[in-house]
TrEMBL record:
GO terms for biological process: ATP synthesis coupled electron transport. One of its GO terms (molecular function) is NADH dehydrogenase (ubiquinone) activity. Residues 125-391 form the NADH:quinone oxidoreductase/Mrp antiporter transmembrane domain. Keywords: Cell membrane, Membrane, Transmembrane, Transmembrane helix. InterPro entries: CPA3_Na-H_Antiporter_D, NADH_UbQ_OxRdtase, ND/Mrp_TM. This is Multicomponent K+:H+ antiporter subunit D. Pfam families: Proton_antipo_M. GO terms for cellular component: plasma membrane. It is a multi-pass membrane protein. The lineage of its organism: Bacteria, Pseudomonadati, Pseudomonadota, Betaproteobacteria, Rhodocyclales. It comes from Niveibacterium umoris.
């Protein structure tokens, strides 16, 4: 079997699992766990293949791009898919151990969410990015409502409303780009956009601007941030833990289009606006964490702060800062997810023997040594300090980190004496998986930094991405 067929596996496996869970609900746990392990294994293989320098392109229907739909597993896409697999495996295990998976259709919805996230990270087409966003959102709506009380229902309603607005804007943006370019392949758009003139260029700029607004909304960047703390702090912590990577999709989408179309549509003024939004988000998150009194709220503000940091470094133009941001993406999601799960233990009065996980997760979210988020943030800050015009942003990130640390320390100290029932072995295993992932990335920092440095250089020179997508040959050479 040609290796490129494995690119669709992170999408096909959760889809198959969701179907089987509906057909055999009594076996849903076993099916979901088997799918999770298989998806994780494929993700590891995709990262290993990308690390060797081979980007894999899968042409759906065996039609060449730009006429067909292409999926691409390069260093960035494979890295994001692996981060997704690691986080969602841990959250799935915890949900099973805590009995959070007993709601109607939990496992099919969870697999649909997983399929949507993976598809968004792997697609090379704007319209299919929209499709996978919607698939992901359908799963997240259902998961957020699992066993929901009135407070959770209100939080979910806000989440649904803001994302429906984002979906409408996304469709308008895609329609504008297709109307003037006749294609929605990201690679083909990168070639066609520079040739636009007059009214066509104005329409393309409008479409790109709307697309940027959508990505900022998904990333919960200021001034579109209000929904995230209320939603993530309002739904059950176990549900919020599965959402930690969803905001990363907004930052990922921004990185993709800026790297491909930056010289054409996203000029210095656009980039400055996005970075200002990221800076405001980081500062707001620090202040919110400082003012929060519950662990789930602090975790929600931590997710918001990491989203703002990624927007800054992804648009900074510094290869070192970009590499640091790519390094930061997985462990920050692991630690934030673990913190939400610890909040779930406290909510159920089962934190008696979970203080170690509280300490590790809090250290990771705060960005303290020796965990991987600290090393990644340090690398990103080195890149920002290396550019004289970015010093202010670096100091702002440090100040916001101090605010987050203060808020986390206050809440963690209050919980240090919490008693109650002990957590069960499966819950401990899930938290060990997430916290252990962040610890393992600390010990593997050197090879990870080499990997992300090459990924950053590839994003700075998108010609290879364009060539890989448009020159991909269908199976059989048709």
């Amino acid at each position: 079997m040609p290796l490129q067929h494995l690119v669709i596996a992170p999408i096909a496996l959760p889809l198959l699992a969701a179907t089987l869970c509906l057909a055999a609900p009594r076996a849903s746990r076993a099916i979901s766990l088997c799918s999770a392990l298989a998806t994780l294994a494929v993700s590891v293989f995709l990262v290993a293949t990308a690390a060797s320098g081979d980007a894999l392109v899968y042409l759906l229907g065996n039609w060449r791009a730009p006429f067909g739909i292409a999926l691409l597993s390069d260093r960035l896409g494979a890295w994001a898919v692996l981060a997704t697999a690691w986080v969602l495996c841990g959250v799935l295990l915890f949900s099973i151990g805590a009995g959070r998976d007993k709601g109607a259709y939990f496992h099919p919805l969870y697999q649909v969410l997983w399929m949507g996230v993976n598809g968004a990270f792997l697609t090379a087409d704007v319209f299919n990015l929209f499709v996978f966003f919607e698939v992901m959102l359908v799963g997240s709506y259902g998961i957020a409502l699992q066993g929901a009380g009135m407070a959770e229902a209100r939080a979910t309603l806000r989440y649904v409303a803001i994302n429906l607005a984002g979906s409408a804007l996304f469709l308008i943006a895609a329609g504008l780009l297709y109307g003037v370019c006749g294609t929605l392949s990201m690679a083909d758009l990168a070639l066609r956009l520079p040739a636009l003139q007059g009214a066509d260029r104005a329409l393309a700029l409008s479409g790109a601007g709307l697309l940027a607004v959508v990505f900022l909304l998904k990333a919960a960047a200021l001034p579109l941030s209000a929904w995230l703390p209320q939603t993530y702090g309002g739904v059950s912590p176990a549900s919020a833990a599965s959402f930690t990577l969803l905001t990363k999709l907004g930052a990922y989408g921004m990185l993709r289009v800026v790297s491909l179309w930056g010289g054409t549509l996203f000029d210095a003024n656009w980039i400055a606006v996005v970075m200002a939004c990221g800076a405001g988000t980081v500062l707001l998150a620090g202040a919110g964490a400082l003012a929060s009194l519950s662990l789930a709220r602090v975790a929600a503000w931590g997710v918001l702060g990491s989203s703002g940091l990624l927007l800054i470094v992804f648009c900074s133009g510094s290869p070192q800062a970009l590499a640091g941001g790519l390094f930061y993406l997985p462990p920050s999601a692991m630690c934030a997810s673990a913190l939400f799960l610890v909040a779930d233990l406290h909510r159920r009065n089962r934190l008696a023997d979970g203080k170690l996980w509280l300490l590790i997760a809090a250290v990771g979210v705060a960005g303290l040594p020796p965990l991987a988020p600290f090393l990644a943030k340090l690398q990103a800050l080195d890149g920002l300090f290396a550019a004289p015009d970015l010093h202010g942003l670096a100091w702002l990130i440090l100040a916001a980190s101090l605010l987050t640390l203060t808020g986390l320390a206050r809440v963690a100290l209050r919980l240090a004496g919490a008693g109650g029932e002990p957590a069960n072995k499966v819950e401990h295993l899930a938290l060990a998986w997430l916290c252990g992932g962040a610890l393992a990335m600390s010990t593997l920092a050197a090879p990870i930094q080499r990997y992300t440095a090459v990924a950053a250089s590839e994003l700075a020179a998108p010609q290879a991405y364009i060539r890989q997508v448009l020159d991909a040959v269908p199976v059989g050479g048709r």
